Amino acid sequence: MTVTAAAPARSPQLPPGRRAWRTLSPYTYIAPFFVLFGAFGLFPLIYTAFISLYRIELQTPGDMEWRGFGNYTAIFTDPFFWGALRNTFTLGVLSTVPQLLIALGLAHLLNYKLRGRTFFRTMMLMPYATSVAAATLVFAQLFGHDFGLINYAIGLVGVGPVDWQTGTLASQTAIACIVVWRWTGYNALIFLAGMQSIPGDLYEAAEMDGASRWRQFLHVTLPGLRPTIVFSVIMSTIGATQLFGEPLLFEGNAGGGITHQYQTLGLYMYEQGWSFFHLGRAAAIAWVMFLLILVLVGLNALLARRRMAKEAGR
Which among 10, 102, 141, 187 is least surrounded, fewest beta carbons within 10 Å? Predict the structure, then answer.
């Protein structure tokens, strides 16, 4: 007697419409993102590149005159553009470096078991949740020349009043203080999340080897936190390049001070588009900022990758 194996059951054939729907239905869940990104992200980017090649005035936006790369040539020959680029760089350094260092120290303290850790972590986000307009107006009063609290405090130790809104270094330092105050807590919580992902066994092994807390921080925390640090540096670089609200509201004009001493690229673009009505030139500045951000982000990523490859080869 021979036994024949039963043929495997065949799944019922679905109609072509049902098969097509089963194939395409997953894409319907992600379609809203791509629709919104195309409408509010990709299309404005492409349209900005398009109008940057024309001469368009705000009073007559329908009259477009072809200029080619004339708007870019006008930008690169304008000394105020190079001044704004220099101010953007100096403000970025003055705000980003202290911000990340302080955030790293605060995150290291909050990583230990402290009383009221939840309260302190919540307080870290309060400056970030504060309106940039409210924060800048308060700091503008603090850095006032005649009745500012900062000049009063330094006067107690014998230092004369500083004109925080006129001097180049003084005004940039004041604006950098606003940025540091608003974003330090945000970066501290990002660092804290990265620290909590580091395995506790590494700290226990380092402690058994007699490593102090400082050495644990140098040889365990920092290497494990490197991807988070790279992310924070990249995001801070993008934010510094787009700095706009704080310098605009510090004195209330798009010129960035009497002598343009703290005018950033964002203020320069706003001034060209909404004060001088040159929409085509403003669009060109926007694309220059976009390309500058790509270069800076790529440079940061390249340096981080080379550093990681160098350490991995040791």
Answer: 10
